[in-house]
Amino acid sequence: MNHMMLEEEAEIERLPVDLLAHIFLFTSSFTDLAQGSGVCRKWRKAVRQSLAGRERLSFSGCKMDDESTVRLVRYAYNLKELDM
């Protein structure tokens, strides 16, 4: 089983950051993005990169403090619409 888990981890590591960022563009849930950014440094970079390409972002239904909101919105420099 350990060998199988190592193979799966190796497969996901092969994905380039640009491809991960593109995948994250299809994720509309802020909670999912936040959890994805906590997986590892590579995923955090991909989430940040995907935020840069977003024109719309919604925190609706999420409890956000000002510091967390500022930290995320700073990466979403193409935003045209922000739903809070």
UniProtKB/TrEMBL annotation:
Record domain F-box: where: 12-49
Signal peptide location: none
Source organism superkingdom: Eukaryota
One protein family per Pfam: F-box-like
Protein name according to UniProt: F-box domain-containing protein
